[in-house]
Structure formats: C-alpha cells, structure tokens
Amino acid sequence: MDFTFPAIAIIHSCFKEKFGIPRQPGLVPLATAQLEFLPPYNNPTAVAGLEGCSHIWLQFVFHANSHNEGWKPRVKPPRLGGNKSIGVFATRSPNRPAPIGLSVVKLESIEQQEGKLLLNLSGVDLLDGTPVLDIKPYIPYVDKVCEAINEFAPAAPVFMPVTLGREQQLFCSAFQQQTGTNLIELITQILQQDPRPQYQTATADRIYGMKLLNLDLRWGYMTAGENYGIYVHSILVVDVTNDKK
Q1: Inter-residue long-range contacts of 221-225, CB under 8 Å, 24+ positions, other chains counted
Q2: For residue 196, what pLDDT band results from cuts at 50, 70 and 90?
Q3: Helix (H) or strand (E) holding 59
Q4: Spatial separation of the C-alpha atoms in residues 232 and 201, rounded to whole Å
Q5: How many CB atoms lie within 10 A of CB 76?
Q6: How far apart are CA 87 and CA 225, in angstroms?
Q7: How many CB atoms lie within 10 A of CB 83?
Q8: 106: which strand partners?
C-alpha cells in the first residue's frame, strides 16, 4: 500500500547542512528553528490551544536523503561507532523504507508575522528546509515512560570539552551583541557531542566544518597517547566566520 501526504509546514533551521546536526532532539537546547505553516494550513484556528503546550511532536521528511539507493534491512548507527550493524527498525536512522522522522521539540512561542503563521522552536535536530507532515502535542503523563529501556542507547552521550581561542571568543561575543544568540554556548552544545563519524581516526591535521546559522564553523581534535593508541580528549574551535557564499 502506498499513501501520499501533504507537507503542512516547512522548517527554517539554524542547521544548514546535515553534518553537525545533533543525533537526537533536545541535546542542543539552544538550537532554534521556525516552523512556517504552508497554505491552506496557515489558518490560526488550526493551532488554537497549542499555546498551552510546552513541547510538541513533529513528524517530518528526511528530504535530503538520497532516495535512489533503496532501503537496507540493517544499518550502522553512529551510536555503535559506525561499524556495527543492527536492524533498521531498531534505530532512528534516516535511511528507512519511508524516510519519516519524529522529534519532540520545545515550543517557545506562536506568532503571526506579515501574513505568516509561525512556531518558534528550540532543541531541534532538523535540517533547514525540512518538510513537516504533522504536529501533535506532547502529553507528559503518557509520552514520558520512566521505566523504558534501550540496550543500545542506555545513557546520554558523554560530553567532550570544547575550547574556543581568543579570536573566536571575540567574534562570538560580537555576534551575540548583534543578534542576541549566545554563539559560544550554541557551538559548545553542538560540538561537545562530537559530531565526527566514530569510525574516523582523529588526527591533529584533520579539520571538520559545518554551516551554522549564516556562519562557517571549523574545528579540530586534540589527541594524546594512552597505552598503545591515540584517544581524543578535547575539541578546539579553530575558526568561526561569516558564510562566504
């Protein structure tokens, strides 16, 4: 059976490319987005009462996936180091038979602006331009399952120390004065979860980068020897500049 669903809204996110997006919602509280309703769903009546909800569920499409590769019954999730495979339905991998995602995000406010109906969100893990299929209120007494377990992801990831140089700190401070965005904290929340593919070996000369807001962010990994190997012990932000495109 095949079904067709309309996109009711589109996401305008601080994340402009897939790399660097947190692997789960809520891990980066300062990650913000606006949900813009599309006609005819931009009727304010449709969200009447939603202002009483602190959090909402979003059902969306992984629109940036490559859809010509087909689906695979087993995938290699980053949580397991990118080397161990498990069943696709035991993961939240975006590579699925139906590329639909589900995230719970914080609803900061609802506003109408120049004829647009907007939801201001935080704690997002959504790529800019993501189509939204549906919105549902988060209901704590049924949605929060305190006794739930997941053997493959039993605890939150261990955060890594993040360091910004003096020049980068000054840039971030000026950016915060201009925009109100606490850029140092936003960068720290994103990078402390180590966006690097776990199967890649960190070396002192390897630099990673991502587009965040209207900025280019680049960072590297400080490594040290331990017994017979090399381990990553902290992240160093090497550059934060305005997007040159």
Answers
A1: 221/196
A2: confident
A3: strand 55-61
A4: 9
A5: 18
A6: 35
A7: 8
A8: 55, 122
Residue 17's nearest CA partner among 99, 130, 122, 106 is: 130
d(CA 204, CA 223): 7
Tokens 């669903």 found at: 5
CA–CA gap between residue 63 and residue 51 (Å, rounded): 28
For the chain, the C-alpha Rg in angstroms (whole number) is 19
The count of C-alpha atoms lying within 13 angstroms of the C-alpha of 92, restricted to the half-sphere facing its C-beta, is 15
Per-residue pLDDT at 142: 95
Q: In this predicted structure, what is the pLDDT of residue 228? A: 43
Which helix (H) or strand (E) is 140 found in, with range? helix 140-143
Q: Is 0.85 topped by the overall pTM?
A: yes
The continuous run of DSSP H or E covering 145 comes out as none
* CB-count exposure of residue 99 (10 Å: 0-12, 13-18, 19+): middle
- Asked whether 122 and 30 are in contact (CB, 8 A), the reply is yes
Confidence (pLDDT) at 84: 82
Tokens representing 144?
Answer: 């929060």
Distance CA 131, CA 62 (A): 8
Q: Cis omega (within 30 of 0) on the bond before 25?
A: no
